[in-house]
């Protein structure tokens, strides 16, 4: 008997929610069709817009807070803000979106969430 995989540890590693070994993503945010290790079919996955909504709220809070802190603490020229936040924001957004998407997939698997059916 294998122990259940934690959705958080699988999400951080970007691994299959069932076995915790096979990769979940083919590229940065594209899902694979199935797990290459345990064969879990990923057709049950439907995260919808959930990861994007969470990522936008978290990213906005983090980036605005950091930008305001830098502005009021160091008072740099405008070009420093443009360069720093223009590079940092997309990188943090992609990482955050990947993490949240993998975590929601793990939660769907753990709680056996699927589309509702009548009858």
Description:
- There is one protein chain.
- By secondary structure, the chain is mainly α.
- The chain has one domain (7-110).
- Helices cover 55% and strands 0% of the residues.
- It is built from 3 helices and no strands.
- Helix 1 packs across helix 3 (78-110).
Q: How many helical elements?
A: 3
Uncertain spans? none
Quaternary structure type:
single chain
> What's the total number of strands?
0
In terms of DSSP E residues, the strand content is under 5%
Helix content: 40-55%
Report the major sheet: none
Q: What is the H/E order? A: HHH
Radius of gyration over C-alpha positions, nearest whole angstrom: 18 Å
Number of domains: 1
Could you name the key traits of this structure?
119 residues; mainly alpha; 3 helices
Outline of this structure?
By secondary structure, this protein is an all-alpha fold. It has helices at 7-13, 50-74, 78-110. The protein has one domain (7-110).
List the topology elements.
Layout: H1 7-13, H2 50-74, H3 78-110
Helix pairs in contact: 1-3, 2-3
């Amino acid at each position: 008997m294998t122990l259940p995989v934690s959705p958080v540890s699988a999400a951080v590693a970007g691994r299959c929610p069932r076995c915790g070994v096979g990769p979940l993503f083919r590229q940065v945010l594209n899902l694979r069709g199935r797990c290459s290790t345990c064969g879990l079919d990923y057709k049950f996955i439907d995260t919808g817009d959930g990861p994007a909504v969470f990522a936008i709220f978290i990213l906005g809070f983090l980036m605005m807070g950091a930008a305001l802190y830098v502005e009021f603490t160091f008072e740099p020229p405008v070009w420093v803000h443009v360069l720093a936040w223009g590079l940092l924001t997309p990188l943090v957004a992609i990482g955050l979106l990947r993490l949240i998407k993998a975590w929601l997939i793990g939660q769907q698997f753990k709680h056996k969430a699927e589309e509702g059916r009548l009858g």
